[in-house]
Specification:
single chain, alpha/beta, Rossmann fold, four-stranded antiparallel β-sheet, 10 strands
Length: 259
């Protein structure tokens, strides 16, 4: 089976730093697989996602999306490949003054020419799909509310629907519940898990909340100082390995004893 994402020998050193943010990193992700990436701040979790999405240019290594290489690709090819990469950010990245519907439709811009995108000339079938998806995620009553009027959890759901409008093969989620209360975090994580299973989307989600990773991810990637120190099924992640990933005892990590 061909991997949806394949990362080989990834290395990134930021300007002004001598220490790699990620180094010698190898990773494959299959269709429909949900991976939780955990590790302390500075472990390289966000750099990994941003290299996959080509928001950051790797220092070395190769990245393939459904068999096509994004590293070193032409601008036109990068734009094409990014259609397959839905991105969900910690702080939503919505335009607050625009409506929920307008924000969601931005997920179609990668498929449109510049003039149609500027004028908002979206296809009717895309508009219908946006309305249906918003209704399915409990946002049907907020289509024409400004994004800035919504709660944090609602805004994050809008961001997920916008990403789904790209019809992605991959969903990359960078700390999607970091700023949410527990109830909203649960709704968002369940939505991410359910849409990825339903649409067979490969998902990589960075999480500070180890409990959430243990509850929702099929597989855990543990990172420490830019390297993968654990890669395996969630059920096989031991307390000892979690302590190794974070360099802290379990008692300091606020992880439920019910696993």
């Amino acid at each position: 089976m061909e991997s949806v994402i394949a990362v080989w020998g990834l290395k990134k050193i930021y300007r002004g730093s001598e220490k790699p943010a990620v180094r010698d990193l190898n990773l494959t992700v299959e269709r429909g697989e949900m991976i939780g990436v955990i590790g302390p701040s500075g472990a390289g979790k966000s750099t990994l996602l941003r290299c996959i999405n080509h928001l950051v240019i790797p220092t070395a290594g190769r990245i393939f999306i459904e068999g096509e290489e994004i590293t070193g690709a032409s601008p036109g090819m990068v734009r094409k490949l990014r259609r397959r990469l839905g991105m969900v950010f910690q702080h939503h990245n919505l335009v607050a003054r625009l409506t929920v519907m307008q924000n969601v439709m931005h997920g179609r811009l990668g498929y449109m020419n510049t003039m149609d995108g500027v004028l908002g000339r979206y296809k009717e079938e895309d508009k219908r799909r946006a309305v249906t998806t918003l209704e399915q995620t409990g946002l049907g009553d907020f289509l024409y509310h400004r994004a800035g009027e919504l709660s944090g959890g609602q805004r994050q759901r809008v961001g997920i629907v916008r990403a789904l409008m790209q019809e992605p093969s991959v969903l990359l989620c960078d700390e999607p519940i970091a700023s949410l209360d527990p109830a909203s975090a649960q709704v968002v994580m369940e939505l991410i898990r359910d849409v990825c299973r339903r649409h067979k989307i490969a998902c990589i989600v960075n999480l500070h909340q180890v409990d959430a990773a243990l509850k929702y991810a099929d597989r855990i990637i543990g990172m420490f100082e830019g390297e993968i120190v654990y890669d395996g099924p969630t059920a096989e992640l031991t307390g000892t390995m979690i302590e190794k990933i974070y360099g802290k005892p379990m008692s300091e990590l606020m992880i439920s004893s019910e696993r």
